[in-house]
Each structure stands twice: as C-alpha cells, then as structure tokens.
C-alpha cells in the first residue's frame, strides 16, 4: 500500500516488488529480512524522497523527523546509539536505484566513527587495530564520495604507510600505523576542503544521504543511463544499514557468490571469499581472494549456512541470484542479493534447467531469454581455445568477430578492400566522412565514444562489428598507428581482431568459429543427439516453446531460391517480401536500358519479351523452394534511373567519344534518358506503382512471369502460393488500375495453360496517405504488408540513407529518441498509423491478411508491437527469423 507521505521504510516493511520505491537493493534487503535470513537491521529512504530533493533542491520537510524516528528504532534494536562514544552503533549509507548502475554511486561504510567513538569501538571489540582500520576507511570513503576529495591522495598515503613499514598488504599495518594514517587522512581532508572531518555522527549520516541523492545526477551516471536507456527521473533510494564487520580478524571476512555459474548456468559453488576484510576489498583486488569452496575449511558452520541460504534464495526468486555476505566472528550476515546477470548462453541454459527443476513453467522460461541474446548466440565468434594476445578493451557496440589489417583512414580502407584485403578501420572517433570506410571494413574500432557514438550507431545499423571507446588505445591517425597501454605499436597493415560482443581487441588473427546455434538452425547438428551441446538443446527447447504459443507467423525477406531455402531451414513460414529489382541487375540491365530507350511499342515489347523468361525462371525456383508456403512478390519498386549508368561516367564517355570523333549515338541517347529520369528526391519520385502506371507493359510482364511460373509449378505437381504485391500505393485508384490489368493477364494465362490459378493481389502500406485511407484501399487489396522502412521515412520526413550518418547520433545523445526509429518502430507516430490502418482495413475486409516486411519485422521490441496490434505475420531477413519466432512467442506467452 503506497503512502506518498511516507519516505522511510524499515527493512521489515518492504518487499522485492517495491523496486520502484525502494530501489533494487532496498527491496531485496527487505525481502531477505522477511524470509528470516540474517540481514543487519536498517531502513530505506525512498526514491520519492530523492525525487523531491532533486526537483526542489531540498529534502522533503518531513524527511528529517522520519529518519530520526527510524534511527531511534534501530538504536533500540541494536542497544546502542549512532556514534555513541563508549559503544558506537555504526551504519553504512548505501545507494540503490531501481536498475543496478554498477560503479555509478558509492557507498560509505562505518558512519558513526569519530575521534571519541573509535576508542569505544576498540574497547568493545577488544581490537584496536580493527577500530582504527574502520576509521581510516570511513575518512577515505567519506572524503572521496561525500566531500569530493581526490581519492588518489588517500591511496597514495596508504601506499606510503605500507612502504614505510615494508608491509605487503594493508593487514600488515598495526593499530599504531593505522592511527597515524587516520591523522594523515584527516589532514588531507582539511587541506582539500578547508574544514575538519565532521565528528558528529548524525551530521556524517545526513551528509552521506545527501551525497547519494546528488550522485544520481553526476555526468557519469547520466551518461550510463543514456547508454542503457534508463529513464532520468527515477531517482535513487538510500539504504541505512547497521554495520557488521568482516575485518575483525581471521575468523571474519567478506565475500560474493552466485547461486549458479553465470557463464554456464551450472549449479555449484561459485564465488570469492576474503578473510579479514571489509566491503569492496573482495572485488577491488587489494588482496588475493580464495574460491568460495575454500570457505568450507575456513568456517564450516558459516559455509553450510550460506549454502542453505543460497538454496532458499534460488527457490524463492526462482532464478540465479548473486549475493554479498560478511562473516563477523563466525556469524554470517547477508548484505545484498539480486537476480544475477548472466551471459546469453547461460540465460538459455538456466531457463531450461529451471523448468526441469520444476521452478518455472515454459511461459516463464520464455520471459527469461530474449531475441537480443539469441542474436548474440548466432554471430560467429572467436575460437575459445585460440591463443590470443589481448591489447585493449572497449565498449561492445555492435556484435560479431572481425579480423583484418589495421587501417587508419577511410580512403585506405576503401582502397585496400577493393583489392581484396580485409581491413579493420581504426579511428579515434568516426564522423559522416568515414561512411565509405566503414562500409568497406570488416569491423570498426574507435578509442573514443560510447554506445551512442557515431561509430556505434552506424555500425549497428549496418550490422557491422564495432568496438568503440577503447580508451587505453592511443590512435594516431596522422602517423597511421595505434599504441596500446603496454606500449605495443600497431602499424597500418598489422592484423588485428576485434570482438564486438565483448569489446575485446586482440593483436594478430584470432581464428573464428561458426556459431553452434546457427549450425543447429542450418540442420548441420541436431538437438536430441547424445552428444549435442547443452546450449543447442536449450535453444531447441526454448524455440519449441515459442513456436507452440506464438500467434504471429514469421516469413522471410528473400529474393532468390537460395535465401528462401535457408530461411525455410530457419523456420520461415513463407516469403513476405521478394524484391524483384535484384532480378534486373547484371547482364539483364541491358534489357532495362533498351526498355527505357525504346522509341516504338515494338522495341519496348521486344525488351519486355526478353526479360519475361528470365523473370519467370527466377520465380519458378523461388516457388519451388517455398513450395506449399506463401510467397509475396513485390513488383518493381525503385526508380528506373537506378538501372542506368552513372551520370558523370556517362558524360565523360560521351565527351571522349565526341573528341575522338567516334560514333556515340547510343551513349548520347542514354545520357539524355539519364537526364530525363534524373530526380532531386528519387525516394519520393517516379517509383513503385507510379512506374508501373507510366511505363507500359512493365508490371504486366512481371505479373505474367509470376502467373506462368505458378502454372508451371502446378503442372509439375507443386503447390505455389504466390501473392502479388504493389508497392508505394497512395490511393485506391492506383491499385484498381493495376488490378484490372493484372487480372486480365492472369485470366489470359489461365485460358492458355488450362491451370486454375489463385493469385492474391495486395499492396504495401508505406505512405501516410495509404495508412489513412486503408479502409478504401482494402476494397482492392486482399492483403496489406506494412513497409515500415518507407513509412518511417515518409512519416518523419527522414531520408534513411542520409540521416543515420548525419544527425542521428546528436539526436540520440540529446535524448530526442532513445533508439533509431529505423531500428525499433516509433510506436506513437508510425505505429499509430499502422494501428489505424489495421482497424480500417479489417473493417472493410474482415479476412484481409496483414503483415509487415520492413526491417522492424526482425526487431524484438517491434515484434511485440506487431503482435499487440494484431498483424498476422512479420517478415524479416533470414538470419533474423529465429529472433522473430522467439519474440513472437514471448509476446504471446
Ligand atoms: P554496491 O552497490 O557498490 O555493491 P553496496 O552498498 O552493496 O554497494 O556496498 C559496498 C560494499 O560494502 C559491499 O561489499 C557491501 O557488502 C559492503 N557493505 C555495505 N553495507 C554494509 C554493512 N552494513 N556492513 C558491512 N558491509 C557492508
Ligand atoms: Mg553491493
Ligand atoms: Mg518501400
């Protein structure tokens, strides 16, 4: 029950479902408390309090009293007062947002220690070394996090103290050394801030709470949220937790653990433990930790208890959990738990393991994995067994494994790749001028910029491997070389390997192995065989769950029989988009040229006649590959000039011929045609249905090829299910004209062949006008296929080919959109039109078939949207089909 007047919750009051209000850490501390696990008592200040503070610049008026009341209660429970001189209660002040933001906001331990209470702590614990160690930690953490003192000043002083003593580790410093160090630390605070380290315990606590609030808006935190698409207005909670001490001696310590291996998913004992240590020591790598399994011989009782708690947590959360714990003089304390991060492969394995254990059902298993993880498992990867020389690490910006020769500018990238070399383009950062180079390269590596940098955005758009922001690599484009942190110099032409899934950069050629998951989809390995890899088994089972529950069918965008066959192996239930323009390239271009140049009907018909059998041949193969499944063939879409020679090249040819007085009549006519067909904005020009209506015979030739191919397949006892799709329709009149012509042609083929053909005729919905008038268009269309690429272009007025490289990074950085609308469908704008067209299309023709064939058909978030608006199918490139199947299943489960 949410109470907007209540800003503080005791650990006994919350639960794991209150992450919005209590943050992840606070909600889970409360959950563990209520499970009866040993959690040091404490309370949580809500994210609401943080929001008020951030908005108004001051803590809510009621907060101070509420904190006092909870602190009083805590003091009563613990039987001591915060900072009390003879026996101080100490607390930690810990940040904790809804989503974990690793390393973003710091925690202060040992609050309540002062010159007076440190003595009391020493007496109570009968351990002076421990008390002074805790005090120096407080000043160090508080100085750095709350007072903004440069942390290195403390670290240097600690190092000096160790050096003076000849001590290898901080545990070798004794009470006297640490007492001196405390004086040093206090001096550092005084010099840096101009004031003394605060001696009042409550003041320490209040300052720390405020610092946690403020840390929500540091530059680092903001950048992280932008990159991870975490909303900026969530705020953080603050946890005040009574201290327990792992630094009390050899019978104490602190550790981290996973309830199962986050890399493989296997059950077992995974974690690290450090004796006589506090807080972050384990992860900071200050001293060598021991594997968790060794705790059994160090402290059997605590170990057994921990194993039991881990089992309780797994059963309770029904998932892999990670935990932080501390042992104080043989007493185990739980300090944190959460559902743990895992690798993509482990996510699949764990989901099926949990099903087998009876902890979750199949529908839940589908929610435990996602399409992005599946896509990651489908990329080829570097051979795990290869010997590698890692020279750097950046942000994993766009997955894949790429190997090539280092080049430091786009010109060289293009030149070398033209001569058959594989190259990796290495830049400090990229800009629109690098586009050619990025296209030519196998992969892109930059030393600056994050997940929304130009390199990252453009590479993801192209599906190209990219590692960005590898900061320890010094890129010198002028001298065409890169220097690693270890001083290794990589010259132009040296081979490097980059892993876009991990961000790792290697020197030399690392061998690449195909993904076992793709091998499985291709049918080269089979799940179910005894030796089949566990991962493949898990993927196989999850895909079966998804296929069982999904409502959306999944088709492929495939232009030829080969792609169609692969798509079918990957689970495609038809072709949603066959682009016929690819069939006009190569040697067939000459016929298109002649078609355009034709002066007479005879000439025109001659070239169409030459094209007809070629087209028909393509379709026969395609229908055969997709026998029994629908194949949507789109009639010619792009502007004709795309089939003509480049204007500059042609002008040069004409000029040369003229100068040499050679015959050049054909070139000249071609040049005139190129000029005539030249358009300022070809995307909005003579293309799609417009072309079909003004170039006589073009669409009819294509329809004839489709009809004859289908008739031939039926003759051969096949089962072709061709659907004819008209692109770029804006009004029903266009469609009616094409339909009339098409029906006449089909009737003619039926009459001539005697084969009963059923060819569906429909249209793309890819213009705003078509979406708005979909009710009318449905009169003439048996199906709609939403062309969301063009629809996004025309709704936003963006030219996709231009804007992604020019201003999208700026837009992403400014937060105008969280992701490119070409990557994930813009639900509010483009999506609203789709929704409207679905409704009005169905109103006119209840059995109308509805699908989508833009890139969005393979994007996880978009697939969920298409499920929700009630489409019948999505169509995407062959490699995205498993992803679409999985996401369609997740949407329906
Ligand atoms: P993070 O979010 O970075 O993990 P935490 O708030 O969990 O930060 O705390 C940092 C470290 O301090 C962790 O190792 C945690 O276990 C330890 N710690 C936090 N609060 C206490 C406490 N009350 N007693 C002992 N150790 C604590
Ligand atoms: Mg923690
Ligand atoms: Mg289109």
TrEMBL record:
EC number annotated for this UniProt entry: 2.7.9.1
Keyword Metal-binding assigned: yes
Reaction(s) catalysed (UniProt annotation): pyruvate + phosphate + ATP = phosphoenolpyruvate + AMP + diphosphate + H(+)
Entry GO MF terms: ATP binding; kinase activity; metal ion binding; pyruvate, phosphate dikinase activity
Catalytic class of the enzyme: transferase
Cofactor section: Mg(2+)
Active site: 454, 853
Residues covered by the PEP-utilising enzyme C-terminal domain: 537-888
Family: Belongs to the PEP-utilizing enzyme family.
Protein name, entry field: Pyruvate, phosphate dikinase
Highest classification ranks of the organism: Bacteria, Bacillati, Actinomycetota, Actinomycetes, Kitasatosporales
